[in-house]
Amino acid sequence: MDSVFFLVLRRMRLPLLLLITSYAIAIGGLVMMPGQDDQGRPWQFDFLHAFYFVSYTASTIGFGEIPYPFTPAQRLWTSFSIYLTVLAWLYAFGNILALIQDATFQRVLARRRFEYRVRQQATDFFLVCGFGETGGLVVSLLDRRGIGATVIDHDAAAISALELEPAFGHCPGMVGDARDPDCLRRAGLDHPRCLGVLALTGDDDVNVAVTLAAMLLRPGARLFCQARAERVEGRLPTTHSAVILDSDRSFAAALALAIHQPETYRLYDLLGYLPGTPAPPVVRPPRGRWILCGHGRFGRAVENSLRGEGISLSIIDTNAAALDEGGVLGPATDAAVLQEAGIADAVGIVAGTDVDITNLGILLNARGLKPDIFTVLRQNQDINRPLVLAARPDLLMETSLIVVRQLAIDLTNPLLRLFLLHAMDESPAWAAALADTLCGLDEARVPEIFTRTLDTADAPGVMRRLKRGQGSFVHGLLAPTDPEGAALAGVLLMRERGGQYALLPAPGDDLEAGDRLLFAAAPGVAARLDARLWSDDFPGWEMPLKAAPNSPPHNTLPA
Amino acid sequence: MNFDKVVFAFFVLLAAALNAGFVWGDIDSPIHHPPFELFAALVVNLIATVLKLGERSHLGAVLLATSLVADLLLILAAIIWGVQTHVFQTGDAQTTIVSVVSLAVGALFANVASTILLIIETASVRR
Fold first, then answer.
1. Contact assignment for A10 to B54 by CB distance below 8 Å
2. What is the spatial distance between Cα A72 and Cα A285, in angstroms, rounded to a whole number?
3. ipTM
4. From B40, which residue of chain A is nearest by alpha-carbon distance?
């Protein structure tokens, strides 16, 4: 029993009263009116028949005058009661309809439906605050990985979009203020299957509030906070465990890596992309002097990264306050301004303003003045994607997608983050060879990344082998089923054993219980690998060692 | 003086009063129990029930429950009377009037409880 029910009952009082009194008057009067039977003898309605008559008259069914034709007195009373009862019914009916369609009522119903669906969540899920561009991409990502989501957004249109699009997996969404802890609770913050909170609204203040609330109300949950301004770092307590998703800084770091070590950057880019998409091409941003257009937060982040690589910069901005000394003031879409910044001897240009159309204009302008300049384009909004793809920049920064890709790594394959960290220390040749191998797994598409742990849950067959003392080696995981066949199209990227990490373990390395293995493979390989991990007599374990063609260089690193 | 409260108390008491008036008299004598009075008692009881809808307090919930009990019994009494008279043609039999009145007595019991609760509610108002 909650407020919805009481609301309905209260509003129903007047219509019900009108109905009862109109019926009472009509029936009572009809019983009293003098009538006549077919022999002319006086006859009067009794209550049962009067009730019957008034019922079918008030509902406008109108069977007729029963059981005998009416006398004038009865007819007079009937006319009066028609107007009384029919109008009472119409009024009551209209009232019920209006009540059902009432916005408050609907919102209360929607909220109850939402809470019910949240309670019924059977899979692990994340609480997503903010369903804009980034939120939408994140929910699709989670849905593809089999993780659920519950969504809070303050805009009703966004929640409607959530309900309509099948790509979002029909996850429950509610309209509300994410800063309100009650809203967070209703969206499932206390639910045992809630893995964590993603604060992805466009307002940093809201994101910080959500993260703090989640820290206090559900310690131990995984927290991700999107940051668009400096204020976020300073507002969270220093001991926070939230992951700050900062697309500006992430991109700036990636750009610096691409300049410093393009092969490693390619590996990083490849493994961070969504599986199944075409593999990104190799990019080699040149060293030399660069022009940076737009000195806002993104521009400053890029400036810091590039100066860290020893790149000299000319900075253009339309706002004098944003420029330090030595910068060029003016719109970069103006050819004269570009020339003043020295485009003639610049090797690269970063179009990093807040407006996509401006950035596109800068890019076209720059290409017009120097056709072979390396172009970096910042895309702020996903709707401009067709324009951006047509412009074909050398390197594209997509604000929302960067966040999504960071999340894709963090949420689904924490080992991948460690692998990428360790891979940074490897030589460019190592990275290039591995990247080539990975591209070859699934016809130049990004391979799938997944983790398997050697325990009784993931790999009972292997556990039984190990218990029996039979050797199990790395090469057996992806070996072909018969000596003439082809190996599985996959690569064992990393093995983690008790805190020690080994990148690309050698085929002869043994497997132990408790190992965590990170794989990159073509679609479908995961299922076949699972089949092997579950069987203890898979012939591949006994296969002789055979070096696969195009295998990347093997090495073992202590952590 | 609160108009809503006057109306509410009026109908609750009127329901009890009409109910009492109907059952008063020999239980097996039809003269003492005019059908019009049962009709009036039923209508006023329904009105009193509607007035009790939508109360969130515990007392309000119990009041509504008593009213519903009274409604149920009176409706049953009316149905039995109608069926016995027209379907089985035994409307004038002693058993008919006894059944009807005994159900109405039950409804009176519920109405008395309703009245007592109303008195308690009134007495507990601190003004």
1. yes
2. 102
3. 0.86
4. A24
